[in-house]
User: Which sequence fits this backbone?
């Protein structure tokens, strides 16, 4: 009985000691974890986070998926910029950007019906494992016993990255190759539209202005009198806000005058510009609106006759260039307004300029149809590649990055 009690006691002691040793080991593991991993670990325990590195839009990023992207970024930077390969922040940013690109590519692939098979990827990994095995046997002179078998090499390669990440990477490279190398033929409708666009001739009238011009017009219309400036000066003097000159005395009105004028102009600028824009908007709706806008602004109307659709991307007059082809609202109005009704569209923004446009006339001149139709976008690999990349870049803006490792930044 005494031996049995001792045995039970020993079991209890071993259990208690084992429990505390487990806590100690876990504590040491957590202590030596990197800061991001330690934070993620506690977030998971507390229920504040799941086992993912963040989100791209509504798509969660598994931690192993993120680590695979981060590892690819490491090898990329190691070959082109070794110093950046050791920077955790750079690698994390690169990983998130890479994953966002893959998410967007998946959206494009789904829309175009493109996909890759897991079986094909496994077959490629198997071929790579056999190649590594052959090079190991033939190159180093080792015996078969000293070299890992193809099966072991295959398992190591397979486990180095999650299969979904491999599928997405393969999807990305295969998708763009497929799009760029597709033998796309124009439909009869496309050919007809292209012919019509080459024969279309536009007559547009333009009036452009800058915000700075509006400010000067507002100042000219309502000049700031000396009485207003003196009132402002006396108010500052009463409140003890006047600065001192080199002699330690308060600056005089003449010394302060220009500063006060600039200050008032700056304070009134936003309101005065808004007032002028409202006046222009009202004139825009009136008959011969563009002519009235021209008179109010004191700038001439610019005529652009016999312009092709391509020319609208860059209209030149004297030493000025007006680019309207990149303005989505202008292109929309171009397809919907009734030409010849003196309809005034805009103002359309072009860099620092604001442009009002009267859609004077549109003619389809069959004698000016370009029979050759010019080089097709799809016949030019560089243009096609740029077009496809632009689709991807535009879509990426709709997928914000939410980080749960590293710095929390919305991109």
Assistant:
């Amino acid at each position: 009985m005494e031996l049995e009690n001792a045995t039970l006691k020993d079991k209890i002691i071993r259990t208690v000691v084992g429990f505390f040793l487990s806590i100690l080991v876990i504590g040491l593991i957590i202590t030596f974890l990197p800061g991001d991993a330690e934070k993620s670990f506690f977030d998971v325990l507390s229920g504040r986070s799941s086992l993912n590195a963040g989100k791209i839009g509504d798509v969660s990023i598994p931690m192993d998926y993120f680590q695979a992207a981060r590892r690819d970024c490491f090898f990329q930077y190691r070959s082109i910029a070794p110093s950046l390969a050791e920077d955790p922040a750079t690698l994390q940013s690169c990983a998130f950007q890479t994953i966002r690109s893959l998410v967007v590519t998946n959206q494009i692939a789904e829309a175009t019906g493109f996909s890759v098979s897991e079986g094909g990827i496994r077959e490629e990994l198997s071929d790579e494992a056999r190649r590594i095995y052959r090079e190991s046997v033939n190159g180093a002179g080792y015996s078969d016993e000293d070299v890992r078998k193809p099966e072991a090499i295959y398992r190591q390669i397979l486990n180095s990255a999650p299969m979904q990440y491999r599928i997405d990477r393969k999807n990305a490279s295969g998708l763009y190759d497929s799009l760029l190398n597709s033998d796309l033929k124009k439909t009869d409708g496309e050919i007809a539209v292209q012919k019509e666009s080459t024969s279309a001739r536009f007559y547009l009238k333009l009036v452009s202005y800058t915000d700075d011009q509006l400010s000067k017009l507002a100042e000219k219309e309502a000049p700031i009198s000396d009485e207003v400036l003196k009132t402002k000066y006396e108010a500052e003097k009463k409140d003890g806000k006047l600065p001192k000159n080199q002699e330690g005395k308060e600056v005089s009105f003449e010394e302060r005058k220009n500063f006060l004028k600039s200050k008032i102009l700056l304070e009134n600028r936003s309101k005065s510009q808004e007032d002028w824009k409202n006046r222009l908007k009202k004139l825009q709706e009136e008959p011969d609106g563009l002519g009235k806008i021209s008179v109010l602004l004191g700038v001439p109307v610019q005529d652009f006759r016999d312009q092709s659709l391509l020319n609208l991307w860059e209209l030149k007059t004297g030493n000025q260039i007006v680019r309207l082809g990149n303005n989505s609202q202008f292109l929309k109005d171009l397809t919907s307004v009734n030409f010849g009704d003196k309809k005034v569209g805009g103002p359309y923004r072009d860099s620092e300029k604001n442009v009002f446009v009267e859609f004077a006339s549109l003619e389809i001149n069959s004698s000016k149809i370009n029979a050759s139709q010019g080089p097709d976008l799809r016949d030019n690999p560089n243009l096609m590649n740029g077009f496809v990349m632009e689709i991807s870049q535009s879509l990426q803006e709709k997928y914000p990055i939410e980080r749960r490792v590293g710095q929390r930044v919305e991109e």
